C-alpha cells in the first residue's frame, strides 16, 4: 500500500481524474452516440485500474466495466467502482451522469466519492455535509425506468415526482436538498449504489434497502434491486408507504 496517498485522498482523486478524462473525451467532439459512451467506459476503466494497481496492488476491485474476479470475496478491502454511471446521459450531452468510487471494508463503504463532472463537483466522505433547511417536496426516480412504488409513495406523501438519469446524480440531488428522497426499484448492481451510499451516509442521510435493511457489499451475487436515499426526518413515512405498496402488490 502506498504511503504517499491515503485512502480518502485516493478516492477523491480517482473521482476527480476520471471526470476530467471523461469530459476531455466528450468535449473534443470527435465521437458521438454509443461509440462515445463505449469509449468513455473503456478509457475511464483503464485509468482507474492502472491507478489502483500502482497504489493499492493488494486490494480487490469490482467494476461494472471489468470481469468479476471472485477472489475479491476473500479480501476485506474491495474497491467498487462505476467509472461512468449514466453512459446514455453522458453520450447524449446531458449533465446527469456520474463517477462512482468506493472503498469497501468488510461489506461497508468506508471511503467514497461521487463526481458530477458537468457540475464541477465531487462529493466525498471526507467532506460530505448533512442536508438542512426546508423540504423540496420532490422525490427523484429513474428517468428511463421509473418504479411504480416511487409513484405510489409520491402520491401518498404529496410529493412531486422528478425523473433523472444516473443513480449517483439522483442521490447527490438529495444530498444537495433538490429532492427529499430517491427511490429505486427494479434492478441495480453494487457498483450503482456503493459510492452514493458511502457519501450519503457520511452526510447524515437515511440510506437503506426498501425493506429498511442495511445494504451489504462485496457479495457473491452483486444484484441489488432496490434502494432508498432520503432525508432522515421522512424515512419512517416513506418506509411505511413502501410497506403498504408491497402488501397491496406483493413486491416492489
Automatic annotation (TrEMBL):
Taxonomic classification: Bacteria, Bacillati, Actinomycetota, Actinomycetes, Mycobacteriales
What keywords is this UniProt entry annotated with?
A: Magnesium, Metal-binding
- Which SUPFAM superfamilies would you find in this protein's record? Carbohydrate phosphatase
List the Gene3D superfamilies.
3.40.190.80, Fructose-1,6-Bisphosphatase, subunit A, domain 1
Q: Which InterPro entries does this entry report, sorted A to Z?
A: CysQ/Inositol_MonoPase (IPR050725), Inositol_monophosphatase-like (IPR000760)
Where is Mg(2+) bound in this sequence? Answer: 64, 82, 84-85, 192
Q: From which domain of life does this come?
A: Bacteria
Q: List, in alphabetical order, the GO biological process terms annotated in this UniProt record.
A: 3'-phosphoadenosine 5'-phosphosulfate metabolic process; sulfate assimilation
As cofactor, the record names:
Mg(2+)
**Keyword Transcription (UniProt):** no
Q: Which protein is depicted?
A: 3'(2'),5'-bisphosphate nucleotidase CysQ
Keyword NAD annotated: no
Q: Which GO terms describe its molecular function?
A: 3'(2'),5'-bisphosphate nucleotidase activity; metal ion binding
Amino acid at each position: 500500500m502506498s504511503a504517499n496517498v491515503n485512502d480518502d485522498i485516493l478516492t477523491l482523486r480517482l473521482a476527480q481524474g476520471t471526470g476530467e478524462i471523461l469530459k476531455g473525451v466528450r468535449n473534443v467532439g470527435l465521437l458521438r452516440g454509443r461509440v462515445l459512451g463505449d469509449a468513455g467506459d473503456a478509457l475511464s476503466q483503464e485509468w482507474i485500474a492502472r491507478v489502483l494497481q500502482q497504489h493499492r496492488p493488494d486490494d480487490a476491485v469490482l467494476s461494472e466495466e471489468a470481469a468479476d474476479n471472485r477472489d475479491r470475496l476473500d479480501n476485506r478491502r474491495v474497491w467498487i467502482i462505476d467509472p461512468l454511471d449514466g453512459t446514455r446521459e453522458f453520450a447524449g450531452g446531458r449533465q446527469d451522469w456520474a463517477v462512482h468510487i468506493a472503498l469497501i471494508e468488510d461489506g461497508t463503504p468506508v471511503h467514497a466519492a461521487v463526481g458530477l463532472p458537468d457540475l464541477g463537483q465531487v462529493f466525498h466522505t471526507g467532506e460530505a455535509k448533512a442536508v438542512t433547511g426546508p423540504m423540496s417536496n420532490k422525490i427523484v426516480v429513474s428517468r428511463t425506468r421509473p418504479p411504480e412504488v416511487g409513484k405510489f409513495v409520491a402520491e401518498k406523501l404529496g410529493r412531486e415526482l422528478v425523473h433523472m438519469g444516473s443513480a449517483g446524480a439522483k442521490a447527490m440531488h438529495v444530498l444537495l436538498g433538490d429532492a427529499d428522497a430517491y427511490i429505486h426499484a427494479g434492478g441495480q448492481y453494487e457498483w450503482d449504489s456503493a459510492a452514493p451510499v458511502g457519501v450519503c451516509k457520511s452526510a447524515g442521510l437515511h440510506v437503506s434497502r426498501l425493506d429498511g435493511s442495511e445494504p451489504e457489499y462485496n457479495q457473491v451475487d452483486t444484484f441489488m434491486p432496490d434502494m432508498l436515499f432520503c432525508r432522515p426526518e421522512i424515512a419512517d413515512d416513506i418506509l411505511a408507504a413502501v410497506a403498504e405498496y408491497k402488501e397491496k402488490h406483493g413486491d416492489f
